Amino acid sequence: MDLASISCTEKTRFEENKLNGVLAEIIAIQDFRSNGFQIRRTGTGSDFIAFKETLGEVDQIYVEVKYGQASLSPLQKRQKFLARKHNMGFFEYRVTKEFLENFKKIHGINTENIDAVEFRRMKNDAICNQSWFRESNYQEEVTHGANQQWV
């Protein structure tokens, strides 16, 4: 299906879901950082690798962030299989619609006024360890909000 043949409403929904997915990644990155992990982009198969040193060993976890009801792509399923095969962690970090809407409200984020380029900049800032939102509210939200599951 060509993007040009999609109706205006479908484009808007597609763009909104894409922006929400990027925002969900920012939430996940900041969550892992607040728990002592360092972040490295993978490029393909997962959103990032979270790692930290504990007891002289490095724990490394491939993380795939999903917003709402999104499911793993075939490539992501393969990454999950390979991670397990090689005894590495694979974490599917889920951000519910309700959590994301609350997060946007608390931090004054209006996705209608921010384009994809701005969100990518925010995500890159999060990866580079720059926090752009109110830390005081963030830890409480993370502790009580995001639906996370080990897979």
Order of helices and strands: HEEEHEHHHE
Question: What profile does the largest beta sheet have?
Answer: 5 strands, mixed
Secondary-structure-based class equals alpha+beta
Average pLDDT score:
76
Low-confidence stretches: 1-6, 130-151
The best one-word shape is: globular
Estimate nothing, just give the exact number of structural domains.
Answer: 1
* Portion in beta strands: 15-25%
Total strands: 5
> Percent of residues in helical segments?
40-55%
- Write down the oligomeric state: single chain
Cα Rg: 16 Å
Report what the structure shows.
Helix 2 links the parallel strand 3 and strand 4. The protein starts with 7 loop residues before the first helix and ends with a strand. With 151 residues, the chain is α+β, with helices and mostly antiparallel strands. The N terminus and C terminus are likely disordered. It has a five-stranded mixed sheet with strand order 1-2-3-4-5. The longest helix has 27 residues. The protein has one domain.
